[in-house]
Give the backbone structure.
Amino acid sequence: MAKLLELPSREPLHGYQLRVVQEVLLALLARDASHGYELRARLTLALGPLAVALNEGQVYVTLGRLEKSGLVSSRRVGQVDRRDRRVYELTPAGRERVVAWLEDTSWPKPAPAEFHLKLVAAATAGLADPVGIVDRQRHELLSGLREAQRAALAEAEGSVAGLLLEGVVLRLQADLRWLEACAGYWSQARGRS
Amino acid sequence: MNSNSSVLSARELVKDYGSGAALVRAVRDVTLDVASGESVAIVGPSGCGKSTLLYLLGGLERPTAGTLQLAGVQLERLPEAGLARLRRHALGFVFQAFHLVDELTALENVELPALLAGASPHNARVRAVELLARVGLADRVGHLPSALSGGQRQRVAIARALVNEPAVVLADEPTGNLDGAATTDVLRLFEQLHADGQTLVVVTHDERIAATADRLITMRDGEFMDEARLTGGSARSLGAMTGLEG
Amino acid sequence: MRVAGRLLFVCRLVRGDIKRRRVQSVLLLAMIATTTTTLTLALALHWVTDSPFARTRAATKGPDVAGLFEPGFHGNVGTYQQFVALRRASGVLASSGPYPIASLELSARGHLVRVHAEGRDRQSAAVDQPLLTAGSWAAPGGVVIERGFADALGVHVGDPILLNGRQLAVRGIALTSAVPTSDPLIWVTRSALLASADKSRPLWYALNLKLSDPASVPAFTNAHNGGPNTAWFLESSQGIRADDSATISEEQQLLQVGSALLAMIAVAGIAVLVGGRMAEQTRRVGLLKAVGATPRLVAMVLLAENLLLAIAATIVGVVVGRLIAPALTSPGNSLLGSAGSPALTLTTVALAAALALAVAAAATILPALRGARTSTITALNDPARPPQRRPRLTALSARLPVPLLLAVRLAARRPRRMLLSIASMAIAVATVIATLAQSHATVLGVQIAGNILAASRHNSVDHVANVLSVILLVIAAINLLFATWASVMDAQRPTALARALGATPRQITAGLAGAQLGPALIAAVLGIPIGLVMYIAADGNEATAHLPILWPLAAIPITLIAVAALTAIPARIGAHRPIAEVLRSE
């Protein structure tokens, strides 16, 4: 019996890990040193309503990692030795890293291949109707769009978080357009067969 | 759905164009019920017949077959004059091309349906001012359409559609001629209208408008393929779409 | 091969366009044809000269000199023999007579008229041979009556008459170009004349001479007319012509005025035509440019389409003009000039064709120039000159009931077209009023003067005026139809929008037709005084004595009703077009 392919879990159990949280924290330290809690506050501000998805201890764990890598240095302030109270500061290596990140133009890659192959597989194997799959996915994305749009409209004019949400909305719109095209193709293919 | 509570009720609507070999069936056996306060979005690719359907629903075109009831009145039996009279109070129209009268100011454009319905000039004016304020154009009442941006023009058109307190507002690709920022303005307005309890039927291929609706109907080749009720996602699923993942 | 390709392109476009808009093309054709007809008529009328007179003269062997021996009338110097000897005077080529003449009383159909009777047994003569147009020549018991006189009396061949109490019948009706006196002319047999004449007075005699050199006529008459006491009198044909030309010139004047009026209405029509086409032609230019056509190609396409219509219209216009013209060009019933008279010469046709081509050129060049000047995008997006904003009118119309609201706003959209409509309608109203005033005066005049021949002159003028009025009315009506239709087309979008917003088709129809009523009212109000002025100018002093005031005022309601009826048709058609079609085509 072939081993079932294990797909990576889509929902981590404890919030989401910010992939580039390291770079962001380094950049936030570029101007001057900050307390741990200050860094967390600024990050929360930039993310707006999405900040709730950020894990509680995420920031402090990452700061620890950065220190271990020699990109930041920290010192204790006051009696209590807690991560959020420590003052963090960029090292020269850390500064180099920030500059490199800011100049980097790599863009998160769009990845339609997986869904595309899902549809092909469904059609070839006759296991499910591709149009049905597309429609279900559309509903899902539309719900997401609805939520993102509501959140975007609720933001004040000129809010930086609103910009992020606009990005979400537009990406989802682009994906939905492609899904519409998929639906058109596969319903025609169904008609042909 | 109980037809008594629906504001708009269509049964097996059919619309054909041309004849013989050149016959095109733009709308095939469409059945639709819209309850009061509901907001319905009809989406589909161009040429799928959604605009034609909207014009049928608004009595701007006669169906080849099928029945249609609007605000309790059967439309097939009405002559043209009767349809016009019904439109006064039962419908508000928003068009893709705005269709504002070029030589009238925003205020005069908005009060026009009220005047056509027989309101006194004073009342029409008061109502028009009120509506223009509601759509955020209080400072532009005296402007001609040529002096307004696309988004502003559409907002004037929306105000015009509301002046006679219609039972249903029908919108045909309201953001079709608008750019991103203007679309957002119109979006906001539609959300507001919906929140105020206005019944809306919007035809669009813009997913953002579609996402504001309670019911989303997909149309293809003249018929309804799919209907969905959109439920809101959570901030967590939102996060996944932002790229906030490990 | 490039030329062939271009030609094909042009042909396809033109054919496609005309097919697509059949109604519009037909209306356009009618409009240009009307304009052409109008100008054809105008030209024909303008050139009515005394050629009918010349024709009559030739057909009846008209004399150069007519002599009348009338002892006791002017004087008694000179004998009958001397008079007759004039036949053999030097310079005389041919002669006829002397014929006895008498002044008799003729009674026919209730009229009693003093006539000039000539005793002639035979119709044929070397000079002055009357041309029979009905019946046969005088014989015992029968008389021949001059045609103008016969028309005025209303007698036909076979009718009984009383001549100085003697019962006779009309045997024939004839034309002549020798009418020396103002009493109407009849011919009887010699014996009948001698029997009927007043025995107590000497008979008079008439002599007709043809000279070998027509230019020597004045010298001849001077030489042989004795002093003031001579028993005879010689008159040259120019003198005769002068008599009749009084009649002709009155009508000719009228026809010239008529031609001017027709030309004015034609110009108004053309202006509406060209203006109405401008918008869509500009758009087409934009489209063609956007597709990549060179300016030359664009001009070719426009010209081809308009030329086709113009040529078709010219043909129609000239044919119709030829058919109508005879109704007008029959001046002076005594003279030839009615049956199948080609008052149309080749020059006229050529001029009419030139006009049609000019219209085509104007309809082509103006938009082509405009299109070339404006950028392609502007031409495509904003084809029509947007109507001007009129805040006061808009505010005023808001207080009116819906049909009036629509009428006022629609009328205010195109003020220039409104002015042209007013001009065209005012001319028509004015002419009708002038004509009616004229015939009203004629009736009075006849009653007062009791002169049959004067009445017949009036009748003939009347006839021309009536026909002219009818033609002007018809043309004004066509102009109005076209102007209304152009307005309906121009107002497609706003009216469709109004219907979508809740205006009923009836309200739209009333609005579209009503938009023409304002101009109609102004036209009627203007037309009445203009018409009366025209009438006074034509008739001089007699007119002011009997100036009608009350009944011309009826022109106002009549014009309004007529205009409403006419414009209701295109208005109704416009109000029932499917809304979605119009709104969606943007």
